[in-house]
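Chain A, query sequence.
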Amino acid sequence: MRAVIFANGHLGDSAAVLHSLLPGDLIIAADGGARHCRALGIPPDVLIGDFDSLAEVELASLQADGIEIVRHPADKDYTDLELALRHALQLGAEEAVVYAALGVRWDQTLANLLLPACTELEGLRIRLVDGPQEIHLLRADSERPELARLEIYGQAGDTVSLIPLTGDAHGITTRGLQYPLQSGSLAFGATRGVSNAMVGAQASVELDHGLLLLVVIHAPRALEDSR
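Chain A, predicted structure.
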């Protein structure tokens, strides 16, 4: 099962978001993300959060529409987006696509970018999407070896950046990129893996040890094929 989660940040290209949705997706709105759903004409299956970003009249309207409401107290240990991801995992989702996770607050943006590295969300493959940019995490040393490999689809010239988290990343092998690695390493805090590029319509990255943030920036004409 795939969950599509709307957070409360900047949404980006609404047409591309609508095009990416698939039949059977579980739609979850994290607090103010419900406004994005309403603007797109997509009723969420679940609305979750402490609802500090929604007026009571908005919440009442959503509840009247039959949407499941999962309310948490304002004094909580998790952001609304993390609550939404945890809820998706509890419902059996194996993949989550997150929209509107980035915004003007650097603390929230950084926290959201690092959510895929949370060990308690390890069973969920998370992809953050912001317009032409998508962000993945490769995780080695896991009980799910598929989390250490990713196939990338786009076009020649699309930017691909590899950024190690929590320490150096080792055993990196790439295919279909301009500057390939074969069982190579990238150092934590260094920028060697930034601004690589695809040479065709498909590329792949795999990892033997560590955590690797993978950012893909698609050229505009590739957006319709990048889901």
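Residues 1-131 form a domain with the Rossmann fold fold (CATH 3.40.50.10240). The CA atoms of residues 1 and 93 lie 5 Å apart.
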